[in-house]
Each structure stands twice: as structure tokens, then as C-alpha cells.
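Preliminary data (for renewal application), zinc ion complex.
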Amino acid sequence: MSPITATFRFYEELNDFLARPLRGRAFESVCAHTATTKHMIEALGVPHTEVELILVNGESVGFDRVLADGDRVAVYPKFEALDVTPLLRVRERPLRTIRFVADAHLGGLAQLLRLAGFDTLYDNHFADAEIEALAASQERIVLTRDRELLKRRTITHGCYVRALKPQTQLREIVDRLDLAGSVRAFRLCLSCNAPLRRIDKAQAEGRAPEGVLERHAQFVTCDVCRRVFWEGSHWKRMRTLIDSLVPEQRERDAKA
Ligand SMILES: [Zn+2]
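Predicted structure:
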């Protein structure tokens, strides 16, 4: 069998994953005889979860397209401005509910996502196989800075997190997945990822310090850890963070 050679061109930030000499230009690569688009894209270093659209010879294809000699493959990340709705995207459907599972290095981001109201599983003992299983069984988006994890077979939705600081990571995820409209602050317990429930002052008695009971009217509790939260200074700092993320959020909360 004669060798199969295809030409590849990766666009925008997908280039970050390529070996330096291959960035920002078309290049040829030899492919195995049954190699699919997904196989080759990942062999070149790009996790498939980062890819939104693949064109082979100008036509949009899925991850399972087997490559033929002379194919020209263009690979695109999520588009910000360019309208690609007429083209087939590689994923069959977006996830209906946004839920995450964060890898062991993203504890800070996991807490901030919970703060913003997004169900996020996190445990610093999660093994890669566990994360993969949770993502598949509960339709969760995998968040990681480990591109090998995103190459795992059953992971269909994932985000390679580029930023290093939790607050910047939160902004990155909110921007990338266009989540600003879905932020609901103080809905989930930061420690347990469980829903917070409103309680009145009487129910908070004995569970919050006296001075706090005098000064505050609004309390919420988590039914898992039984902790009680109120709008203290820590809460206000968090509120400032959420508001910086979503400037319109304060208005929306005021109306709700
Ligand atoms: Zn809790």
C-alpha cells in the first residue's frame, strides 16, 4: 500500500497545541491507512474536545472521517464571530445542562464555578479514569490543564483550561462556553456542590453567631454540610467577583 499523506492546517488557538514548526501554516503529515480525522488531530497534539469544526477538502466532516491520500484538512476551534451554522459541527449536540467535572489541579476554579451556580464535581483524589466515567455517565464537561486526559475516548465535552489563576480561569470558561447568561450566584454550597436553601432568621438561630443574627436577615443553608451562610464581608467580596464577570447580573437578581 502506498503511504497516505494529508495536508493539515490548524486555526487560531489550536496552534498552541502543535509543535512549534507546524503552527500557523499548512503542513503535510503521513497518516496510517485507517486513520480518522480524530486520530490524526490528536496525534498532532490537539485534544479533540478543543475542536469545533473540521473541513476536509472544503466539506465539514465528523471525527470518524477516514483520511485519504491528498486530503486537505482544516481544523477550527470554537468560533467567536464567524457564523458557521450552515456547516456541520463535529459534536452531535450541545449538552443541555451545563455541568462540570474538574481535575485534581483545579480546586480553586471548581469553587468559583459553584459560586457562580454551576454544578461542578471536584475531588483532589479523582483519578483520570474516574473523571472519564463521571463525564460520560453524568454528561459533564471535563475541565483540565492535562491534554492527555482530554484525548480519552469517551470524553465528548471538555475544555482545556489555559489560564493559571482561578479567577482568570473562571472568566475563560464563562467566555468560552458563553455562560454569562446562566450565572446564578449563591445557589450551590462551595464545599459540597449541593443546593443552598433559604431559611429565615429563626431557623438560623443557634447555627450562626449572635451578632450575625442581629445584623442580617437573609440566610441560606446547605443540607449536606448543614452550614449556614449569610451576606457577610466574604459574601460581598464574592459578589463583587461575580458582578465583574457578569455586569448585568445585579439587575437580573434585583428583578428576580
Ligand atoms: Zn455544604
